[in-house]
Amino acid sequence: MKKILLPTDFSENSWNAIAYASKLFKNEACKFYLLNTYTPAVYHVDYVLVEPAQFGMYDAVKENSLEQLNDFKSRMEREFKNPKHTIETLAVFNTLVTEIKDVVNKEGIDYVVMGTKGATGAKEILFGSNTVHVFKNVKCPIIAIPDGFSFEKPHEVLFPTDYDIAYEDYHLKPIVDVVSLYNTRLNILNVSYGYDLSETQKANKNILEERFKHQSHLFHSVSNQNVPDAITKFQIKTKINLLIMINNKHSFFENLFFKSTINQIGFHLKIPFLVIPSQT
């Protein structure tokens, strides 16, 4: 049984991510954990030092969270009617990233699926601060769903890589699992600066060839392009339904994602994005 964590702030953006997860895994037995974290508006150090119940707000905030979680749970059951899916609700007084980490560890979560909308709502910012913090701190595969994206079966998946990662099973199993759900082709894209592959890179590429031998896959290579441009040009040529990257601090993911180029990809990426941690 797959275990899927669905953080929600009860926005339509978060509902969109819930709908995506429900449809992506519709043929799989799943347990969904519908999570809302809350901190009362007056939350600060003095408040924490005193029993929160004395303020008469803690219970009210929790009740509101539970009520909205139950509404979302009912909506899931009503709209998707899937006997293979069970839903558990979690209303927790905590910060979002800390609680996601706790639930991932405690429940053995397979995927976190969440919306990407930033607090600013600015069109040029693809990933909000919460999403970026989850990418950086949570050791679990995360599927981020762009605002307004309607579900498409992931028939064409793009996996850019520099082959500088010694691929382990925990890197590749989430990819195999997702591409096995549908009749999916995995496009493995190497972006280089014109140099030949090193012996280490060749060995890592061979690992991919062996691991994906039972999945439909193609290797592609482009040189003298930056990663966002390569991804964009590939999407123009092939209708990609899902982008997958491994968050390795020694790979181009770090430079792409946590530096100024985040907005370069933000302008063009309109599809779900599966981010796999480099370490478990």
Please give a structural write-up.
- Belongs to the universal stress protein A family.
- It comes from Hyunsoonleella rubra.
- This is Universal stress protein.
- The chain has about 280 residues and is of the alpha/beta class.
- The chain folds into two domains: about 1-145, HUPs (Rossmann fold), CATH 3.40.50.620; about 155-245, Rossmann fold (3-Layer(aba) Sandwich), CATH 3.40.50.11700.
- It has ten helices and ten strands.
- It has a ten-stranded mixed sheet with strand order 3-2-1-4-5-10-9-6-7-8, with helices on both faces.
- Strand 7 (about 185-190), helix 7 (about 200-210) and strand 8 form a beta-alpha-beta unit.
- Helix 4 runs parallel beside helix 5.
- The longest helix has 23 residues, at about 60-80.
- It is elongated and about 60 Å long.
Layout of strands and helices, then pairs:
Elements (H helix, E strand, L loop, with lengths): L1 E6 L4 H13 L5 E9 L6 H5 L8 H23 L4 E9 L2 H12 L3 E5 L13 H9 L4 E4 L10 E6 L7 H11 L5 E8 L6 H13 L4 E8 L3 H11 L4 E6 L4 H6 L4 H7 L4 E5 L3
Parallel strand pairs: 1-2, 1-4, 2-3, 4-5, 6-7, 6-9, 7-8, 9-10
Antiparallel strand pairs: 5-10
Helix pairs in contact: 4-5
